Structures are given as structure tokens and as C-alpha cells.
Amino acid sequence: MTRVHRIKRVATPDGGGEIDWRRIAPLRLSHVLWLDVPAPDTEVQLAYTDEALHVRFRVDEASPTVRHLGVQVPVCKDSCVEWFLQPRPEDDSRYVNFEWNAAGALRLAIGSARHDRSDVPGVSAELFRWRAATGLQDERGAFWTLQFAIPFAWLQSLYPGFQPEPGCRMRGNFFKCGDETPMPHYRSWSKVTSDTPDFHRSADFGELVLE
Q: Where are the beta strands (DSSP E) in the chain?
């Protein structure tokens, strides 16, 4: 079980707000899956405010592969990070899969299994406020980031009984992949138990609890 902390935004001069990611401990995607090759170190930070879940990936990858741009494109073939989220596991087997490449291209679908999925309509940068940044550098080396927000009102439109309050138990998994990169690779936060590449295994999702 991983606890998801409630935070407040940091005020900005335009009257809006930003997330102070320095206050949020990262989760490491520590499981290298299926291929005996190096996979870029990847971590994710997760928190929530009154209105949304907030997510930030960091990938230690100097030259990410980007071939696909736009929305509902096969970003898993590029340098990609993913979050599969099941907001109401107790009574709704469906989960949403957010998949992003290093340029911020997005694939988003909903369903209860790999072969039972539908693209989610109405996807926009304004809705999820996503932001990608490449060519970054710090003491650990070169990296890229992808951050976004999932509005609770949007989740409730898909899952009418969802209540984002302390004690709310969700399930999900975080992934890093690159199916058609120079060195294909797979990582996950919660271990995936299949013998072949398959992220669509809700039985392997980990538990996320709002505090």
C-alpha cells in the first residue's frame, strides 16, 4: 500500500499555482521486466489537491526516442511513461491507461482488460495540463520529465461513485517502456507477473490510498 498525500499549491505571480515537487517523495519503478537489458531509471511523484490528482515522472534518459505526436497515437513505441489507474476497484473493474512519450503525446483509453478498451474522447492539454521537458541535467545526469493533472470532476464523469477523500482506495501501476527504441525496455512500480510483456494485468496493480 502506498499513501498519496494531500498538498496545497504554491502561489505564482499570475494568481495560479504550482506543485512544489520537492516536498513529495518519489516512487521508484524498480522492477525491470522481461528483457535482460538496462532500462532507464524512472521515478514518479504523486499527490492530490482539492481538485485533482497530480503526477510527475522523471526518466534518466539522455536521448529519448520520439516519433509520434498528437493525441491517441501509439506512444508505447517511443520512450514512454504510463499510469494505469483503477479508481473504484471494489465495484468497477475498468481502468484508464494514460500513456505519454517524452514530447507529451498521449494515448488514453478505458476498459476492463487489454482487449476491452475504448479511446477516451475530449482529451486536451487544457483538461490535463500536461507538460513535457527534455534535455534536462542535474548531478545525476541527463533526464526528461512529464507531469500532468487528472481533475476529480473528470474522473467522476467516468466513475460516478468515486469520492476523492481521505481513505479512498484506488489501484494502479506505473510503467516505463520503449517498444521500438534502440534498446527496447520495460519497467514497473508494482511487479508484473506475466511471462511476456503485458501491462494490462489489473491483478498486479498496487494499492494507492488517499490520506
A: 2-6, 10-11, 17-18, 27-28, 31-32, 42-48, 52-59, 80-86, 95-101, 106-113, 116-119, 131-138, 141-151, 169-177, 186-188, 206-210
